[in-house]
Design a protein that fits this description.
Number of domains: 1
Bound molecules: NADPH dihydro-nicotinamide-adenine-dinucleotide phosphate
Shape: globular
Oligomer: single chain
């Protein structure tokens, strides 16, 4: 029995062209799966593809704006055309607008909700028939510490990441009959483009994260590889509907 063998499987990772998505793509690729990274920025994708191919993975990039239903459907159709099947979907694309609730515009609210949670719904719905056809598979949704905690500058982000957890639970109950496990990962504070901007905008964030995190440091995209490998592989076949923090202990520290 090899619990961690993904040879012959195909994984689609939204926002897999950088940051946490690339870290997760590398974790899944290390078990032998072919990788499709989806996003908008082709330049970033070229570097990500190189990193994946350097580790021996079969990898491709498909340009998609995952806030649009037609592009989510085209993404899955192209992944099947290129690689023959889809077994694993990681809904990782995300963004943030950091403003107090009274200053957040309706457009900004929708932009964050569309990017962080509606996209996950649309891509999961698009991938579902292919994953059923593959005999079952894995869907992994990316939440946040803001799935658990509030922050004054993160109203829309908190709503979207709380929503990811509940959407995960609902889909896990719906699709267990199809042998699909749906789980969420709640990253702690990880050093990426997104949090570089956060550290510019939120005074004292860098130090306060280090201080509160029992492991005493920010996470790296590589720290996300292991949980992705676990949740994408048959090691997690009886794990569904969970929301697993990967945070160096941030969420359990007083
Ligand atoms: P990045 O900004 O590095 O990555 C975000 C990714 O999402 C990019 O690759 C981007 O690709 C993609 N993306 C954004 N909007 C769209 C869109 N409309 N269509 C397609 N792709 C899109 O940030 P992170 O790696 O930090 O974030 C990844 C996920 O992890 C997000 O969901 C974020 O909320 C979550 N997260 C991050 C934490 C952290 O500390 N960094 C903590 C907790 C959660 P492109 O530029 O090509 O569009």
């Amino acid at each position: 029995m090899n619990l961690f063998d993904l040879k012959g499987k195909v994984a689609v990772i939204t926002g897999g062209n950088g940051g946490i998505g690339l870290g997760m793509a590398q974790g899944i690729a290390s078990l032998g799966a072919a990788i499709v990274i989806a996003g908008r920025n082709e330049e970033k994708a070229a570097d990500a593809l190189k990193a994946l191919r350097d580790m021996g993975a079969e990898a491709s990039f498909i340009a998609a704006d995952v806030t649009k239903k037609a592009e989510c459907q085209a993404l899955i159709a192209s992944a099947i055309q290129k690689h023959g099947r889809v077994d694993i979907l990681v809904n990782n694309a995300g963004t943030s607008v950091r403003k107090m609730p009274q200053d957040l515009s309706e457009d900004e609210w929708h932009h964050v909700l569309d990017t962080n949670v509606t996209s996950a719904f649309l891509c999961s719905q698009a991938a579902y028939p292919a994953v059923v056809k593959a005999g079952g598979g894995k869907m992994i949704n990316i939440g946040s510490m803001m799935s658990l905690f509030g922050a004054p500058y993160a109203t829309a982000y908190c709503a979207s990441k709380g929503g990811i957890v509940q959407m995960t639970r609902a889909m896990a109950t719906a699709w267990a009959k199809d042998n699909i496990q749906v789980n969420a990962v709640l990253p702690g504070w990880i050093d990426t483009d997104l949090t570089k901007r956060a550290r510019q905008q939120v005074q004292g964030l860098h130090d306060s994260v280090e201080k509160r995190t029992p492991h005493g440091r920010w996470g790296t995209p590589e720290d996300m590889a292991g949980i992705a490998a676990f949740l994408a592989s048959s090691a997690s076949d009886f794990v569904t509907g969970t929301a697993i923090p990967v945070d160096g202990g941030f969420s359990i520290a007083m």
